Amino acid sequence: GAVVSQHPSWVICKSGTSVKIECRSLDFQATTMFWYRQFPKQSLMLMATSNEGSKATYEQGVEKDKFLINHASLTLSTLTVTSAHPEDSSFYICSAPLRQGQGETQYFGPGTRLLVL
Amino acid sequence: DAKTTQPTSMDCAEGRAANLPCNHSTISGNEYVYWYRQIHSQGPQYIIHGLKNNETNEMASLIITEDRKSSTLILPHATLRDTAVYYCIVRVGRNTGKLIFGQGTTLQVKP
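The joint structure predicted for all components is written out below.
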């Protein structure tokens, strides 16, 4: 199957700082990527759709000025958590779609665990 | 958007088949049924998907009822490594690729 990577796998930062998370599709190109957030014992929540060459589309309730998304190339999307606070501590996961036969399959990265102190 | 209903949790004995049900009674004609699983602290892993016909791959089988209102994921010989949360998802829209996750079924495979 297709491979999606994320970097870093975990990060600890101080409150008020910004953190950048990278998502890469390693063996395929993706004009669209997706960012999810997952709190402990909860399901994944879609945050935004990252679009190569244009602005990201945010889900309702997600602050676009706080979670900056840049889709720099066909294999890279970045999520920057600006002025991070402890409530932003979470597991951030990206995905990229690949068209295969019937329909389209999303491949997920391994996730980035963020802890804000 | 079609929603899915899954049991909260299930147990399965190691080596036996695990049958995970999913109801999606409001599914529309062009929506696919996808199954993913998430092992603790990892990103979700794609398992299988289908539209109308039953599907099988190296990981699992997907049985979709004729009216498409429900489906069953079958892991033929469950192992301890299959312990995970299994998500049944009906894809939102035809081309957007967005996946909306429900709460899923926590499958516990026991020795």
